[in-house]
Every structure is written in C-alpha cells, then in structure tokens.
Amino acid sequence: SLFTRSHQGLCANERADVLYRLLRPLIASFNGTLRHLRASADKSTAPIRIGLMPALDDESLMSQGFARALDKWSRRHVDDVLQVMEGYSGTLVRWLQNGAVDFALVDRVFSDSDLILEAIVEDKMAVVVAEGSDLVAPGPVGLKQLASLPLVLPSARHGLRTLLAQSLHRAGLTLQPRIEVDSMAGCLNMVKIARYATLLPMGSVYESRGRRGVSVHEIVDPQIVRTICLARLRSKPCREAETDFLAELRQAFARPADRPMVPASRDFYGPARQFT
Q1: What mean pLDDT do residues 234-249 have?
Q2: Cβ of 81: how many Cβ atoms within 10 Å?
Q3: Which of 153, 169, 235, 242 is 20 to 30 A distant from 45 in Cα terms?
Q4: How far apart are CA 250 and CA 115, in angstroms?
Q5: CA–CA dist 217, 54 (Å, integer)
Q6: Is 233 within 8 Å of 115 (Cβ atoms)?
Q7: What pLDDT band is residue 259 in, cutting at 50, 70 and 90?
Q8: What does the CA dihedral 52, 162, 117, 39 come to, rounded to 10 degrees?
Q9: In 221-265, at which residue ranges do the beta strands (DSSP E only) sit?
Q10: Please, what is the angle between helix 240-252 and helix 61-76, to 10°?
Q11: pLDDT band at residue 256, thresholds of 50, 70 and 90?
C-alpha cells in the first residue's frame, strides 16, 4: 500500500515517499536517455524546450535579455525550433525532472543531485512605490523597514516570495502583506493606484521607472539578491543547437556592472557548477 484514502482524496504514505526518492534519479536518467536517442534519430523533429519564469512585461531586462539571445540564436539555426514554456520556479523544476523541458531559467539556488545549476545573472531586490509617495524616504531602504510597509506581494508559490521570506527570516523579521497577487504586473498596478509598496527585482522596473511613474529604492542592510540560474538535468547530454543557445543566454546577460542586473561571479564559459 502506497496511499491512504480520505474524503480529500489519495495521500502518499511513508512507503511512497521512500519509493519516490529511490526511483526519481532512475526515471530522470531513463527519460534523458530516451530524449537523446530520439534527438539523434531525427533532430529535425526534436524541438528545444526551455522553461522560463514570467517577466513583468516586455520592458523587463529579463525579457529583453532572453529575446536578444533567441534572436541571435535563431539567425544561425534556421532549421531548429525552440519552444518556450512559462511557469514559476517550482513548476519549472518539476518539468525538468519529468522531461517536459530540456532546461530552465529559475530564480532559486538549491541543491539537487539530479540537476546542474549555473548562475548567469544577479538582480538586486528593491522597494517600489508610486512616484512622490511618502511611504519611504529618498534613497535605499533598510531591510527592517519592510515589515512596517503596506505591502502587496506575490503569494507563497512565487519564487520571489520565497526569497523575500528567507531573507527576512534570517533577520528575525516576518512578511505580512495586506494583499497577495501572483502577477508582478498586478502588484505594480496596485502600487500605482493605491497607497501600497511592492518588492520587485530592480531589473524589472529600474530603467522604465520614469515612464511607469514609480520610484525604485534598493533594499540594503543587507541587500536581497535574486540569482537567476540556468538549470538542466545532469544526465541529459546537450545537442549542438542547445549548447549554442545556452552560450547566447550567458552572453545576453553579461551586462556592465553599473546596470541593475549584473553577471554572476563565475566563468561563463567554464564548466557549470552546482550550487549548494
């Protein structure tokens, strides 16, 4: 017996948990082998599938960087197809593990023996309020101030919320937003029409803050940094077209140090390392 039944449905028991941990690496390896064989048999029918986190909009530096990489890659690989699937980081990791995508851009640094995580860019977190708002003073905002702000934030299933909660927990603080909205655009709209603050990556709003009518304040003491990682299965070999696209992604995010999003501290073209 692996499951117990209740009025809420089936629930896995301890035996199922043990079985899952034993079988997961075997299934991942098997799926990787199948994908490699299928791609080798007929490359023209094997699209490259990448998982991508939702961006704020087309002006987000995350969205722009990905578009630049895709444009340069597609000019050289006219016969290859790339499919982009959007999802939150937890969903993207599950898609990687079950073979739904070949690699993914996630905003979590974690340890998983089945995956290789390569940091490609870091993005500082900031408080965003309406332009002219009296919620925060000009300049950076201290971490301890966040707990007293009327916040509208993504829900707990969003990777940004996890990052924020962990950072405040280390400082002995908790986040108690007044409103939860999964969409970053939804959070930003609430800031613009009501007396709220939200927390967003600087790369999403910094360069367009004037047009958007918002004020962006970097979080300090300490900073909160979102690390964007390229995640892929350790057991899955990369095709030439995939390797080329990964190289274009790294290059697209190799920005000067004075920009809101900066390259992570690593050798971009060296062997990828796993973060623990």
Answers
A1: 89
A2: 13
A3: 235
A4: 18
A5: 22
A6: yes
A7: very low
A8: -30
A9: 225-233, 261-262
A10: 140
A11: very low
